[in-house]
Amino acid sequence: MKKNNFLHKHQKTLAPLLSLVLIILITASVTPGFLSIRMVDGHLFGSLLDILHRATPTALVALGMAVVIGTRGIDLSVGAVIAISGAVTAVLTVNTDWPVWVVILCALGTGMLCGLWNGILVSVFNIQPIVATLILMVAGRGIAQMITEGQIVTFHSDVLDAIGNGYFLAFPIRVWIAIGMIVLTVLVMRKTALGLFIEAVGANVRASRLVGIEARLLVLSAYVFSGLCAAMSGIILAADIRGADANNAGLWLELDAILAVVLAGASLAGGRIYLLLTIVGVLIIQTLTTAILTSGLPAQYNLVVKATIILAVLLVQSPKTRQWLSDFFMKKKHAENSRTGNPDTGKGSIEP
Amino acid sequence: MSQLVNETLMVKETVEAAQSAVRPLLEIKHLSKSFTGVQALNDVSLEIQQGEIRALLGENGAGKSTLIKVLTGVYPRDNGEILLDGSLISASDSGHAQRLGISTVYQEVNLIPTMSVMENLTLQHQEKTFGLISWKKAEIRARELLAQVGLDIDPLRQLDTYSIAIQQLVAIARALSTQAKMLILDEPTASLDSDEIKQLFNLMARLKSEGLGIIFVTHFLDQVYSITDSITVLRNGECIGTFKTAELSRSDLVSHMVGKSLEDLAPTAHDHSIKRERTELLQLNNVGKQRYLQPLDLNIAAGEIVGVAGLLGSGRTELCELAYGSVKPDQGEVTLSNHSLTKSSLRRAIQVGMGYCPEDRKQDGIVAELSVRENMILALQASKGWWSPISMAEQQKLVEEMIQRLAIKTPDMDKPIGELSGGNQQKVILARWLITHPALLILDEPTRGIDIGAHHEIIQIIKELCEQGMGLLVASSELEELVMFAHRVVVMKDHHKVSELHGDEVSEQAILRTIAS
C-alpha cells in the first residue's frame, strides 16, 4: 500500500527516468561495449561519455527553454541565437586581438540582447511568444550570415579548444559547464523568490497580478536567460568544430529542446516546470541519436526511428494511457478477486 | 384455450397502459459515486415525470453537480441505474447523453464565442445539400431554433456580440435541437437580470407544457418557488427527500438543505456599533470609473467591518476592485492611512497595508499548481520584492502558524493547493494576506463555494480580525452573513451606491427594502 502510494506520487518523475534506463539497457544489449567506460590519460572515454559530451548544447538550450515555457511562452529563436553567438565568437577571434574572455563575454552579451528583443516583443508589445520568437528564428540566421559574410569562419584559440573538447577532472569541460548552469538554474528556480514568481506568473497570471507581482519584467528576464543559454550553447558548438557555420549551427535544436521539456512532463500552458527531468529528456534524445548511429542502422532510418521511440515515451506518459493501464489492472484484479471470492482486498490500492 | 390467451393479452395490455401512464420520464435508482475517499453520491434515487420542473437544491458540495455529471455520462457511476422513458441508459459522454435525450445547459455558456449564432446552433448537426454544408438551410434551421426559445436575433452575428443572457438562451436552443426529453439547467440564472429571468421562465413553462422534464439547479429560493413543481434536496451526497414545492415551506426547505433548523441558524444579537475611537483607514473620495462604477464616497476605520450588499451585477465586485486598486479609477482619490494610492502599483498598496481576497478563487486567487506554502507567502514575498527573499525557515514558521491558527486541513504545507477543498483554499488565501499584516482587508464573497463548517469558521475569523483592529470591506451576496458581522452596510444597485445603513439600521429587511426601492 505504502509502496503504491509512493509510485503514484512519483509517477511523473519515474516515467522519463525509466524510459532513459530502458533505452540505455536496450541499446547496450544490441551494441556490445555500449556501457563500457575506459580511462585514458586521466580522461574518461566511452559511448556514455560521448552522449554526455554531445548532449551539452541541447541541455543548455533546454534549460532556458524550460524557464520560458514556465511563463507560458516558447522560444523558437534559440537555434538562430546559437548561430549568431557562434558567428560573433569566430569573427571576433579571427579579426581582433581581444583576450578570449572578452570575446566570450561579447558572444554571451549578443545572446542576451537577442533574448531581450524577444522579451520586449512578448511582454511589452504583447505579441504571442510563438510569433514573436519566430521573427528572430527566421532573421537570426540571416544576421549570423551577415556577421560571417556568408563564409564558414574557422579560428584557433586554446581556451575555446578547451571549452569545445578539453577535459577537467576526467570529464569534458563542457559537461562541467552544463552541470554548473543546471545547478545554478535549479537553485534560482527552486530556492529563490524569482523562481517562485516566474512559476506563479506562468501558472496563474491573474492571481499573480493581484498579489502585486509585476509579470512583465519576469517574462522579459526569462527570455534574456534563454538567450544567454543559447549563446553558451553556440560558443560550445563553435569551439567544438573550431569554426562558425551560420547555416547549420544549432539547426532544429529548438525542437529538441522543446521536446526535452515536454518529455519532462511540463505543460506548454505554463506553470510547474521540471528542470532535472528536462535534462533527463535531453539525455533520452541524445542517447537515441547516439544509439542509432552506433547500431549500424542505415542513416536514412535515423529520424523515423527516433521519432517513433519518442512517441512511445510520450504515450507512456500521457494520463489517458495511465488511465487505461490502471483500468486494465483493476479489472484483472477484480476478476481474480471474484474468482477467489474475496471482493474487498483489491479496493483502495488503485486510485480512480 | 384461445379465450384464455386473449384474456391474458388484454390484461397485459391494460397493465402496460397503466404503467406507461405513471411511468416516470426519468428514473434514477440507487445511484452512487465516490472519488478518492469521498462519497460524492450515496444511494440517490429520484423520479421525474413528463412536464415536471424539478428543483435540485443543496449547499455547495451536496452532490448536485456530481449527480448531473453522472447523469450525462461525464463521470462513470459506481452503482445504480438510470432509466429514461423506461429503458435503461448509460451515457458515455455528454454528446451521447444528448443523443439519448438528456440535454444540459451549464452556468458557463458552453458555446464558441467567436463563431456566429447560426454556426453554434448547427455545430453538432449540419444541414447538408449533396453532402456539403448548406448555409441557407442552416440559417433557416437556426431561425427555427431561436424562435423556439422566443429569441428574435440575427443568427449571422458573432455570438459574443450578444449579452450573456442571450447566449444562455442560445445554449438552450441548441440543447433543444436534438429532440430532448430531459433538459438540465445548471444555474442558468446566475448571470441574468430579472427581465431575462422572466424570459427564461416563460420558456421553461412552455417547454413544460410540451411535456419536457426539466431539472433546474439554482441558488435562488425565490426562483424555486416561482417556477418549480417539486424539489429534491441533496445533502452530503445523500438524497434528503423530494417534496411538492407548494407543500414545503421555505424554512423547512432551508432546514433540509443545511441539516439544521432555522432556530439554530438564527443570528445571535449582534452589536452593530464600534467601541473604539475612529482612526480612519481607507478613504474613497468621489471614486469612480466610467461604464464601471458611479463615483462614490466611502470611509472605513480601524476595527470596523463595512459590508457591501446588492444583487449580482450591482457593482459589489467593482467597488472592491477600485478600492484595492486592481482596477484604476478615472476620477477621485483613494487613500489608505494617509498614503495616496490613486495611481500607485498594487505592490505599493500592499506595502502600505492593503489586502484583497477576490471573488473568483480559482481564476484570481489560488495558483493551483504551487504548494500551500508557496501560495501563502506569495503576497508577502511580492511586497518585499524577489531580491529580498524570505528564508525557508521563516516561511515554514509563518505557514505553520497560519495552518494552526486558521485550522487549515492539509496533510503538509507542500501539497499543491489545487488538491485542497474549497474552504481550505479560501483559508490559505486569507492566510496569504494575514501574514502581510494588512491594515485593511477587502474580501469579495469570502464564503462562496465552501462547506458550512468552513463557512462558520471564516465568519469567526473575520470577527476576530476586526476585534484586533483591522478594517474590513466585505462584499457578499448572503445578507444574513453580512448582518451578522457588519457595522455598516453599503447597498449597491445598478453600479452605484444607493444607501449606507448604520448601526441598528442594519438588518436583512432593511437591506432588501433598500435594494427593492
Automatic annotation (TrEMBL), chain A:
The keyword Hydrolase does not apply. The keyword Transmembrane applies. Signal peptide: none annotated. The chain crosses the membrane at residues 52-69, 76-94, 100-122, 129-147, 167-189, 217-237, 249-266, 273-293, 299-316. It is found in: Cell inner membrane. Keywords: Cell membrane, Membrane, Transmembrane, Transmembrane helix. It is a multi-pass membrane protein. One of its GO terms (molecular function) is transmembrane transporter activity. Belongs to the binding-protein-dependent transport system permease family. AraH/RbsC subfamily. This is Monosaccharide ABC transporter membrane protein (CUT2 family). It comes from Marinomonas alcarazii. The lineage of its organism: Bacteria, Pseudomonadati, Pseudomonadota, Gammaproteobacteria, Oceanospirillales.
From TrEMBL, chain B:
It holds the Pfam family ABC_tran. SMART domains: AAA. Keywords: ATP-binding, Cell membrane, Membrane, Nucleotide-binding, Repeat, Sugar transport, Translocase, Transport. The keyword 4Fe-4S does not apply. InterPro entries: AAA+_ATPase, ABC_carbohydrate_import_ATPase, ABC_transporter-like_ATP-bd, ABC_transporter-like_CS, P-loop_NTPase. GO terms for molecular function: ATP binding; ATP hydrolysis activity. This is Monosaccharide ABC transporter ATP-binding protein (CUT2 family). It is found in: Cell membrane. It comes from the Bacteria. CDD domains: ABC_Carb_Monos_I (cd03216), ABC_Carb_Monos_II (cd03215). GO terms for cellular component: plasma membrane. Residues 26-261, 277-514 form the ABC transporter domain. It is a peripheral membrane protein.
